[in-house]
Amino acid sequence: MSFKQMLKRLSIFIMIFALFAITNISNPAMAVTPQGLYDKAWKLISVKYVDETQNQQNWERWRHKYDDVIQDEQDAYVAIATMVDSLGDVYTKFLTPKEYKEESESIQGNLKGIGVQIGVRDGKLLIIAPLEDTPGERAGLKSEDEILEIDGKSTKGITVEAAAEKIRGPEGTNVRLLVKRKNEEPKLYTIERANIELKSVSTKAPKIGKVDDNLGYIRLSSFISRNAANEFQEALKKFQDKDGIIVDLRSNPGGLLTNAIYIADMFLSSKTIVSTVDKDGYKDTQNSMAQVITRQPVVVIINGGSASASEILSGALKDNKRAIIVGKKSFGKGLVQEINKLPDGSALHITIQKYLTPNGTDIHKKGITPDYIVDLTEKDIEAKRDPQLEKACEVLQQQVGKYAKAQ
Which of 143, 221, 308, 346 is catalytic? Predict the structure, then answer.
């Protein structure tokens, strides 16, 4: 890709963390009052929020609701958070300066914690996915585990931000999590915090199961790091002599949309990758730029922890018939958030768009259904076998045979 093409793409892409765009409206030279901060937040949601009804309510009622209450920044923070909660959207949220700083550090690739992505669904604090080779993964935490307590305190009604703050902490200290896994009794985990380096790509042999010698295996654990696409490209080049490629997106919680599009570009020639639709119904379609690196047959593995950018990549490859999908239905996050940095260093995440796969499918709360649905149970793991990987190898070998005949 030329520098000019890259600049063009960067100018039109929506940057996301778990599908986030970043808008910086801060101005160090411009002071803002606590009431002014609240007003900025109100205006941003009024203009940008994807649901023009603001969750079936009169948004004007919030405009001056706290005029006689807000005295300082803390008052403004509480008022903004309360206003945002009325939208009933777990992805639209307010971050204090401290929370926004921590999030920015995670995008840059540095965290102090246990290495798990968390979210709230139906009032439950869930692990979306543990990151590869982190204390959380090594302790045995898994996608869909429910965190009942953090250091002895209930998580009932807790926000994602508050939970993340409790789980994070200085390197070398411990956090205790009471975790409930489906059909099992709650279990207490004591996990030592560490410096988390967000490695995105691994070409190591999987921990269980085996990949056929003539196939390449790329494990993409996250789209968060700005280097993820470059890492993936290097992995593809490493496997140029292989007959086919397995891309493992299991428990990948997402990250930067640009990473998903750059990686899709490596497989697709002049095809639609994803479309976004805003509150006014305006549809913006992102097409590949024919920067194809490989034409090898591809199989993608997904599961319930594959979310956001993972679903964009797998959806693009599936709809364009460039890859076959194996595993379990994905998480189902089809919304785009924009990060608006406010003048005092706080930030507001606003859902501004929904995205559609190339076939026009809205997968929010539905997920992507694999071409081959294959389960992976605790018994399988105990037996050190991976039926999903086995099926991926089987299907890919069939595609390799068809590809060879077509040449």
Answer: 308
173 contacts 193 by C-beta, under 8 angstroms: yes
Q: How far apart are CA 46 and CA 42, in angstroms?
A: 6
pLDDT in tens, 19-40: 444 455 544 435 689 999 999 9
- Topology classification of domain 201-337+353-406: 2-enoyl-CoA Hydratase; Chain A, domain 1 (3.90.226)
Which of 17-21, 200-204, 264-268 has the least mean pLDDT?
Answer: 17-21
Which residue in the list 142, 199, 333, 341 is annotated as catalytic?
333
**Top-confidence residue, 68 or 224:** 68
pLDDT digits over 119-171, tens only? 888 889 999 888 778 999 999 999 899 999 999 999 999 988 899 889 999 99
Q: Evaluate whether the domain defined by 111-197 bears CATH number 2.40.100.10.
A: no
Q: Per the structure block, which two tokens stand in for 64?
A: 């001056």
Active site residue 319: yes
pLDDT reported for residue 106: 63
Residue 333 falls in the annotated catalytic set: yes
Which of these CATH numbers, 3.40.50.150, 3.40.190.10, 3.30.750.44, 3.10.129.10, describes 3-100? 3.30.750.44
Q: What is the pLDDT of residues 224-260, one digit of tens each?
A: 888 899 999 999 999 999 999 999 999 998 888 889 9
Domain boundaries along the sequence of the chain = 3-100, 111-197, 201-337+353-406
Ordered DSSP codes for 130-175 = EPTTSHHHHHT--TT-EEEEETTEE-TT--HHHHHHHH--STT-EE
Q: How far apart are CA 233 and CA 252, in angstroms?
A: 18
Question: How much is the average pLDDT of 74-99?
Answer: 94
Helix, strand, or coil (residue 276): strand
Q: How far apart are CA 97 and CA 76, in angstroms?
A: 13
Closest of 23, 173, 155 to residue 113, by C-alpha: 173
CA distance 250 to 58: 41
Name 135's Cβ contacts closer than 8 Å, sequence gap at least 6.
114, 115, 191, 192, 193, 194
